[in-house]
């Protein structure tokens, strides 16, 4: 490359001028002017995925004003940008799109990794199946701005460091695409802990003689004891109960058991009105239902005039290691009462009927459960993954999920 990434023609012209008296100085002056202009007219691509994006916006606002450094022309298309600030978490499904954006940017182009998530995965380094452990595993990074999140001043300093790098570019130091990080994932916490233990042991050995000598010279020495402050006692504040909305739990259970007598209260020995009284008025009714009554019961709860549970709040699942529970959360928009329904699903045949024909919103909820738990919903109109890539191995919210290529297990 030529002047900071110029064409071959530019290189040839520069080589011809260099042979004439004063040609080297002239080319050097042009290179200095071009590099100075490029360093002070960075056009960043609009890209922010998490809390670091808030700090990046603050850096561009009036208090910090990154326009002073020529960075204010944020572009919404990669073809007009020469800088990406990776401000936030990068997930695996986003990775291919990020690489495409980078490839569509004209050269020379630069990347700033802002915050610990963009640098190394941050708090998602351990036990995370979907977070990329550093943007430099996808695209080359020029400047790293540490922090969680870093302040706007830190980002401005990173921009200044990038400008200093750009100003040094020319035919003697041409711009080139950097290398990706390909080192395997390691348990950095345990490594740092082991290194710290070695340092502490060495320090103890070095200071052992000094401690013994101090005890000989000061036999009556007693270390000072910290004075504990008396614990101030506060009067207990009575908690005010939330008002009961809609039909009581007892009435809802009675209406359901008239039509579906096999329904029981979750983790309770009996399903009587006395049990509900002991659980209190703030208890959200949590019912276990057999799979054969699953769709019929939900249809009844929605259509019944008295109950009127017409809104699906959530459909999720729980992995109990030996079986799954499909969990449905319903609400009456008219009266305000709500309940949970639990339906057991065997792990060796993780299938259950869909309720997307009852609640249209269940279509996406069921796809999420299939994606993360592997439970298939019979007669679903579009049973496929919704978050993860189609080639993702396994289902990450299952208790037995393992993937050494993506997940670093937390050592503590």
Give a description of the structure:
- The protein has 412 residues and is α/β, with parallel strands linked by helices.
- The chain contains eleven helices and eleven strands.
- The chain has helices spanning 8-18, 23-39, 51-60, 92-104, 116-120, 152-167, 188-217, 249-259, 273-279, 294-303, 362-373, and strands spanning 44-45, 83-87, 110-114, 143-145, 264-265, 285-289, 311-319, 323-331, 338-346, 351-353, 376-378.
- It has a five-stranded mixed beta sheet with strand order 5-6-9-8-7, covered by helices on one side.
- Helix 3 (51-60) links the parallel strand 1 and strand 2.
**What average pLDDT do the residues reach?**
89
Distance between the first and last residues' Cα:
49 Å
Q: Bin the helical content.
A: 25-40%
Largest sheet: 5 strands, mixed
Give a short overview.
Helices cover about 35% and strands about 15% of the residues.
Record keyword descriptors for this entry.
4-stranded parallel sheet, 5-stranded mixed sheet, 412 residues, 34% helix, alpha/beta, 11 helices, disordered N terminus
How is the secondary structure organized here?
Elements: H1 8-18, H2 23-39, E1 44-45, H3 51-60, E2 83-87, H4 92-104, E3 110-114, H5 116-120, E4 143-145, H6 152-167, H7 188-217, H8 249-259, E5 264-265, H9 273-279, E6 285-289, H10 294-303, E7 311-319, E8 323-331, E9 338-346, E10 351-353, H11 362-373, E11 376-378
Parallel strand pairs: 1-2, 2-3, 3-4, 6-9, 10-11
Antiparallel strand pairs: 5-6, 7-8, 8-9
């Amino acid at each position: 490359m030529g002047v900071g990434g110029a064409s071959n023609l530019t290189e040839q012209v520069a080589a011809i001028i260099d042979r004439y008296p004063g040609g080297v100085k002239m080319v050097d002056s042009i290179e200095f002017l071009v590099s100075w202009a490029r360093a002070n007219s960075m056009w960043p691509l609009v890209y922010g995925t998490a809390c670091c994006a808030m700090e990046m916006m603050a850096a561009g606002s009036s208090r910090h004003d990154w326009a002073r450094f020529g960075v204010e022309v944020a572009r919404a298309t990669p073809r007009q940008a020469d800088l990406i600030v990776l401000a936030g978490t990068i997930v695996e499904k986003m990775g291919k799109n990020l690489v495409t954006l980078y490839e569509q940017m004209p050269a020379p182009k630069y990347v700033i990794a802002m915050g610990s998530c963009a640098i190394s995965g941050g708090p998602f380094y351990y036990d995370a199946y979907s977070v990329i452990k550093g943007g430099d595993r996808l695209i080359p990074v020029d400047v790293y701005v540490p922090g969680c999140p870093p302040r706007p001043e830190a980002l401005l300093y990173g921009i200044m460091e990038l400008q200093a790098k750009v100003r040094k570019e020319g035919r003697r130091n041409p711009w080139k695409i950097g290398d990706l990080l390909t080192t395997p994932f390691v348990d950095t916490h345990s490594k740092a802990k082991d290194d710290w233990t070695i340092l502490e042991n060495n320090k103890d050995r070095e200071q052992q003689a000094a401690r013994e000598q101090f005890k000989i010279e000061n036999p009556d020495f007693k270390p000072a004891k910290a004075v504990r402050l008396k614990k101030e006692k506060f009067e207990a504040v009575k908690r005010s109960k939330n008002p009961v909305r809609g039909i009581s739990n007892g009435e809802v259970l009675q209406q359901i058991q008239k039509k579906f007598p096999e329904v029981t209260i979750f983790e309770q020995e009996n399903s009587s009105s006395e049990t509900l009284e002991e659980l209190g008025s703030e208890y959200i009714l949590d019912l276990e239902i057999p799979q054969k009554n699953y769709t019929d019961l939900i249809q009844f709860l929605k259509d019944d005039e008295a109950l009127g549970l017409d809104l699906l709040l959530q459909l999720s699942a729980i992995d109990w290691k030996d079986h799954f529970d499909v969990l449905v959360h319903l609400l009456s928009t008219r009266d305000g009462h709500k309940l949970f329904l639990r339906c057991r699903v065997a792990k060796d045949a993780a299938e259950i009927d869909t309720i997307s024909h009852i609640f249209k919103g269940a279509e996406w909820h069921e796809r999420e459960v299939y994606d993360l738990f592997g439970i298939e919903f019979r007669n679903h109109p579009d049973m496929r993954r919704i978050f993860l890539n189609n080639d993702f191995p396994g289902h990450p919210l299952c208790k037995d999920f393992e993937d050494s290529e993506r997940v670093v297990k937390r050592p503590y």
